Amino acid sequence: MELKTARMTVLLDPAKKKAFEQLCAQQDTTPSQVVRRLIRDYLKQHGAHWVPSGVPDGGDGESHPD
């Protein structure tokens, strides 16, 4: 889990935002949790390397190249 966070602003249609927030509530999750999961999955799918902020070794006990 990341120890630091950064804000990202996303512009979308108000109706989509409302539907997304309602669906998240029905699934007992937050929009932020869903977006973070989507970004992690997208990075993984495209082979992008990243280390969680604030965690020296990526949090998995293994060293990661810069």
Describe the overall structure.
The chain is mostly helical. It has a domain at 14-45. The protein is 42% helix and 0% strand. The chain contains two helices and no strands. It has helices at residues 14-26, 31-45. The protein is elongated, with a radius of gyration of 15 Å. The relative contact order is 0.17. Residues 61-66 have low confidence and may be disordered.
Strand content: under 5%
The largest β sheet comes out as: none
Low-confidence stretches: 61-66
Number of strands: 0
Class by SSE composition: mainly alpha
Which range best describes the helical content: under 10%, 10-25%, 25-40%, 40-55%, 55-70% or over 70%?
40-55%
Global geometry = elongated
Q: How many individual helices?
A: 2
| Order of secondary-structure elements | HH
In short:
The protein is an all-alpha fold. 42% of the residues lie in helices and 0% in strands. It has a domain at 14-45.
Defining traits:
disordered C terminus; 0% strand; mainly alpha; 66 residues
Summarize the SSE layout with pairings.
Layout: H1 14-26, H2 31-45
